[in-house]
Amino acid sequence: MPDAAVRLKGLLEQLLGVPLPVRIRAWDGSRSGPPGAPTLVVRNRRAVRRLLFKPGELGLARAWVAGDLDIEGDLYAALDLLAGLVWERGEDTRSLAQALRDPEVRAAVRGLLRLGGLPLPPAPPPEEVRRVRGHLHTRRTDRRAISHHYDVGNDFYEIVLGPSMVYSCAYWSAPPPDGTLEAAQRDKLDLVCRKLDLRPGRRLLDVGCGWGSMAIHAAREYGVSVVGVTLSQEQAAYARKRVADEGLTDKVEIRVQDYRDVEDGPYDAVSSIGMAEHVGAERYLEYADVLFGLLKPGGRLLNHQIGRRPQRDESSYRVDEFIDSYVFPDGELQPIGVTVTQLERAGFEVRDVESIREHYALTLRRWVERLEADWARAVKLTGPGRARVWRLYMAACALAFERNRIGVNQVLAIRTPDSGDSGMPLRSRTWG
Known about the structure:
Blueprint: H1 4-16, E1 23-25, E2 31-32, E3 39-42, H2 45-53, H3 57-66, E4 69-72, H4 75-86, H5 96-99, H6 103-116, H7 139-150, H8 154-161, H9 181-195, E5 203-207, H10 213-222, E6 225-230, H11 233-245, E7 252-256, E8 267-273, H12 284-294, E9 295-308, H13 321-327, H14 336-345, E10 349-355, H15 357-373, H16 375-382, H17 384-402, E11 406-414
Parallel strand pairs: 1-3, 5-6, 5-8, 6-7, 8-9
Antiparallel strand pairs: 1-2, 3-4, 9-11, 10-11
């Protein structure tokens, strides 16, 4: 009688010390677990070996990307249930070395080894980043990291992002179905332009310009001259074509350039939308210093950035293994308080901080819907492993924003002149 699911469930519960909140369906067709719960499909013994040789998040991620694991039922519900086992067990969770001192845990590991078959570690999926020794966030390593994430193919991003081609949090006036992704992205770009007080004749630097959406919107709707910089060759080529199609080549220049190499300031305004997450904690003050130096006195910076919750012991912070290995190599999140402090250390006066956390959850769920609706073409364009990376990444992030594990903030900062005249109205916000 097939019993792999029963054995696997029992061994995992023994190892983890808590009941599994999901059902399991194993490679032999057996099932076990709470009725009605989402089902974790273990397609082969290799999935067990992946979990044994890399316990925790990275082992699960490798099994998912390789197709050794899958989920039947509500993906969000399954991830929410599994988060308590993998991501949220708290600071008191025992290390593997500590756990193995327990005879019952050692017995469970031996049982999993027998169940997993040949005791050799499977090779990581090809989608996993191959690490190169050296310092993080040099110009060379940043180019490699950006290429890994953004040079997946513009056709793939068109599937996920839709016509707006904006890869950052939208700004919703109403949740779907009353609001659309395209309208919400247009409203976000317009919000940034208004916060920067863009006007005809002014110059805007768009750092991490993506596929050119912000640059095009600012030039077309506000009459400014824009320089957009990106490290992605594919993004730049796509953005330049869009600029030409809009008849804005006299207003918009797209460069493949590191922001640290921009030397044609000063600018009246700088927008940095979803780019600062790539900078890294050690380089953040340098980032703030460079942008401060590129602005005229009185110029404004709009820094739109994902932030994490602060920890009691910040030295224990670790970059998310799945995202670091498959999505954003070398990306780092920091609390909003750290971001504000670093900007002010560089000389900026921070005038406004707006949290739009719930907006990103709505945006990510729309991106997942678009990917799932055109799944076959996405797989054809990027391969099944890459498509699975994106589905898991976006769904897990949507939950993280909904549960307040991470947030996203727009910080408006000014290079206030010596006179102290910020140029800001006495009341800059309207609360509804």
